[in-house]
Write a structure and sequence with these properties.
By secondary structure, the chain is mostly beta strands. It has a single domain, classed as Barwin-like endoglucanases, CATH 2.40.40.20. Helix content is 11%, strand content 47%. The protein is built from 2 helices and 8 strands; from the N terminus they run βββαββββαβ. An 8-stranded mixed sheet has the order 2-6-3-5-4-7-1-8. It is globular, with a radius of gyration of 14 Å.
């Protein structure tokens, strides 16, 4: 049996840009991606703390060290610059493996920098 478990989480990061007329996805500072063990094109769930919106998209690498978190495409309507979001990815794994798996959880500061 395989189950879905938390793989990675960037907890309470600030939206720095919202670009409606873009192909889609969320652009994330590469430092945050590395710390959370996220890769480009990985599917993620976005949870907006400010308004309760939840959506799924995929990750695009943002410029390293900028603190960029940009919601792109139609999903840009679901956020405002300055909103706090949680970025979550999940993995499918065997039940026994899931019991011992430790997810990567990142708690950035108020400027989206690693603490």
């Amino acid at each position: 049996m395989y189950i879905e478990v938390l793989k990675s989480k960037i907890h309470r990061v600030k939206i720095t840009q919202a670009e409606l007329h873009y192909v889609g996805s969320i652009t994330i500072d590469e430092n945050l991606m590395d710390a959370a063990n996220l890769i480009e094109n990985e599917k993620v769930q976005i949870v907006n703390v400010n308004n309760g919106e939840r959506l799924e998209t995929y990750v695009i690498k943002g410029e390293r060290g900028t603190g960029m978190v940009c919601m792109n495409g139609p999903a840009a309507r679901k956020v405002q610059v300055g909103d706090i979001v949680i970025i979550i990815s999940y993995a499918s794994m065997a039940h026994e493996e899931a019991k011992v798996y430790k997810p990567q959880i990142v708690f950035p500061d108020h400027n989206n920098r690693l603490i």
